[in-house]
Amino acid sequence: MATILRPTFGDFRVGRREAMDADFFDRRFRLLVESLLSIITELEGVTSAGDNLVQLGLTRINEVLTPALVKVNSAAELGFLIGVSTTSLTIEAGENYTFEINEATRGLFTPTPFLNITRSTEGAEDEYAIGRLHGMPKPAGSPSISLPSKISPLARMAIGLSRLRLA
Predict the structure, then answer these.
(1) Scanning 81, 82, 135, 159, which has the fewest C-beta atoms within 10 Å of its C-beta?
(2) Mean pLDDT over residues 65-77, rounded?
(3) What's the rounded Cα separation, in Å, for the pair 35 and 161?
(4) Neighbours of 147 (CB within 10 A)
(5) How far is 162 from 111, CA to CA, in rounded Å?
């Protein structure tokens, strides 16, 4: 870091018998110019540091906030209570099942204690089951679900439940 030249009042003081000629003014103007140049150099360093901080902030936004915004946008489009699974199963009452959640919905899927398991096939709206969540390890994204010993169509029960849709 450059040292800022700091002239004092004594550098500009005029002696009683000092001649005010070209050398007189040259010495004083040289001090002023050198002081201004050292200030400009220092200012350029501060500006450069400020630019580096702005760049660092923008980089952090790209690394941290952009993925978070993508996740929020996905949650707004897909919903966080819906998990899509291509697991092929024949569901029977009283059994336990593990469903593999698709990559697209795995990070967002936040199941509730009870799940509405439906098929995404057109015309299969009446084919569903209500299951109880036993656990879901977050990295694997495979919820373990048990079905009650009796499966009955409880249309009102689906309100507030997470939904696991079978593709």
Answers:
(1) 159
(2) 78
(3) 73
(4) 19
(5) 5
